[in-house]
Design brief:
The complex is a heterodimer. Chain A has 13 helices and 14 strands. Chain A is an alpha/beta fold. The longest helix of chain A has 15 residues. The radius of gyration of chain A is 18 Å and the shape is globular. Chain B is of the alpha/beta class. Classes of the chains: A alpha/beta, B alpha/beta.
Chain lengths: ~300, ~250
């Protein structure tokens, strides 16, 4: 099984799609080597715009480009990009600008750099904007499919990507359908739902929870979330666990809770992720363990819980 | 319009209306029947609160009927209190959260260059608005990209909600700042059509840099009891005040 950082998959995908579609342009704010937009820049220097360390101006510029028929991908770390919320809110969201926001270095998975560089509230912020599609893919294939979707979709998209390598989980790009969760394992009364970098952890945890025969679900699209699949789980399961490399407020756990509470779910929900605290420096594996959503911690917490 | 709505920003609309009039009646190529004509010149009103002036000029230009102006700020109207490009595409950009319009104008200008189009982009900013940091990010980036198809106009009426700009957060020396960022800068009287047109003509001759037209204006221009009165930033006139104001404005024009 191969492994790849989803930022790498993005860089290659946007370059490949750039060959087919001359309307694609890419902007970066002095992080192109890290976000991997540099892969596009090398192939299409005339369609790459280095905007310097000035994210708000980059986002507004991308909106103007979108109004003129281009398809701009605007790249930075997720925290820096979504931190320019007011510009995204008006110039992109309210304006229905066809801008693709690419936030890399999602979550604790960035590791040693520590909290200031970690996107831990980005899904919350982006989910709060009407019309924004929020995608947090879990591997190479689904990231490539998500980039293709972003190009074809008319409207703003937030694509959340990881610095760390993630194992291949999906056989082909065709398993990705925006707004539709992917059932990796069909199970019984327990469901483990991951997104982005935590899907592999949930899948691994399911091996240690085999006697409970858990469902394992990849919710790559956090908004609009797959209500049909969640309703099915609400009907089938007594215990549902969400796992995210993000604050448990406003991200996957909240989105799932919103749907479950409207479906009359009678069971229990456990939200794993960063428990409304800030992050810190460390190796990604160490941080996942400490903050309670490594595969080992997921299995242990579920066993303690039910 | 504002009297009917009983809210809005008369001061900053009157200071900007001569600049907007010169653009739409002299400088810009547009089709009043087609907001999406791809070769049109673009106008971005970064100081979104001045939109009554823009709606008025667009009405005079044949984009919307004058009778519609009375729907300003009313429920279900496409004439929102601040410009909304989704409801009313002729305004080009949704603004009102200050500091964002110049970035959008820059993005349009970059796209036009990439698409090898000769259309140009005009962006009107308020002076208080340029206290926003995002403006200076664009001030840096537009010269880097040699955007000679971008013309920013700065409505220097020296008024903002909490007082005179020079007191709230002084911007001087304005011209020197923009020159230092490598913009072509022209200081003019923003109520003199000959000076406005002359500055716009100079902007056309730029080969590799954007232009800033620093227009000295008077907030509430043409209405004696509004001129340079900070209190008239965001207050609508009563019926009686409107009558007096219109008499003065008509008298000045005749």
């Amino acid at each position: 099984m191969g492994a790849k950082a989803t930022r790498d998959s993005f860089g290659e995908a946007v370059r490949d799609l750039g060959k087919e579609n001359p309307a694609i342009v890419v902007l970066d704010a002095d992080l192109s080597v890290s976000t991997k937009s540099v892969t596009f820049a090398k192939s299409f220097p005339d369609r790459f715009f280095q905007m310097g360390i000035a994210e708000a101006n980059m986002i507004g510029t991308a909106a103007g480009m979108a109004f003129s028929g281009l398809i701009p991908f605007c790249c930075s770390f997720g925290c820096f990009l979504t931190g320019k919320y007011e510009t995204i809110r008006v110039s992109v969201g309210y304006s229905k600008a066809n801008v693709k926001l690419v936030g890399t270095h999602a979550g604790l998975g960035i590791g040693e750099d520590g909290y200031t560089q970690m996107g831990l509230e980005d899904m919350n912020l982006m989910r709060g904007l009407p019309g924004m599609t929020v995608i947090n893919p879990s591997d190479d294939k689904t990231t490539r499919a998500a980039v293709r979707f972003a190009v074809e979709h008319q409207g703003p998209v937030y694509l959340r990507l990881t610095r760390q390598k993630l194992p291949d989980l999906h056989a082909s790009e065709s398993v990705f359908k925006v707004g539709k969760g992917i059932v990796l394992k069909k199970g019984a009364k327990l469901a483990l739902i991951g997104t982005g970098g935590t899907v592999a952890e949930a899948l691994q945890a399911s091996e240690n929870l085999a006697d409970r025969n858990p469902w394992v679900i990849d919710i790559h699209t956090v908004k609009p979330i797959d209500k049909d699949l969640l309703k099915t789980l609400a009907h089938e399961c007594t215990h549902i666990v969400t796992v995210e490399d993000h604050n448990i407020i406003g991200g996957l756990g909240s989105a799932v809770a919103e749907v479950l509470s409207e479906t009359g779910f009678q069971g229990k929900l456990l939200r794993l992720g960063v428990q409304d605290t800030y992050g810190e420096s460390g190796l990604p594996d160490e941080l996942f363990e400490k903050y309670g959503f490594s595969a080992h911690q997921i299995a242990q917490k579920v066993n303690d819980w039910c | 319009m504002l009297e009917k709505a009983q809210s809005g920003h008369p001061g900053g609309s009157l200071s900007a209306i001569d600049l907007i009039t010169a653009l739409f009646f002299h400088e810009m190529q547009m089709d009043p029947t087609d907001a999406a004509w791809e070769d049109r010149d673009r106008f971005v009103l970064s100081k979104g609160h001045g939109v009554p002036a823009l709606y008025t000029v667009l009405s005079q230009r044949g984009v919307l009927p004058e009778s519609e102006l009375s729907t300003l700020r009313r429920i279900n109207s496409r004439l929102q209190g601040h410009p909304d490009r989704v409801l009313f595409p002729f305004v080009e950009a949704s603004t009102g959260s200050l500091g964002q319009g110049l970035s959008i104008a820059q993005g349009i200008a970059l796209a036009l260059k990439l698409q090898k189009k000769t259309a140009r982009v005009f962006c009107l900013m308020g002076d208080g608005e340029t206290q926003e940091g995002q403006i200076w990010e664009t001030a840096m980036s537009a010269p880097k990209y040699k955007l000679n198809n971008l013309v920013a106009l700065l409505d220097n009426n020296n008024g903002q909600i909490d007082g005179h700009v020079t007191e709230v957060m002084d911007l001087e020396p304005i011209a020197e700042k923009w020159r230092a960022f490598n913009w072509a800068v022209h200081k003019i009287n923003g109520h003199s059509f000959s000076e406005i047109i002359s500055a716009l003509e100079k902007a056309r001759t730029e080969k590799d840099r954007p232009t800033l037209i620093l227009a000295k204006t008077v907030k509430g221009k043409g209405v004696s009891f509004m001129e340079d009165k900070i209190g008239w930033h965001g207050v609508a006139p009563t019926a009686e005040e409107l009558k007096k104001a219109l008499e003065e404005l008509k008298g000045e024009k005749s």
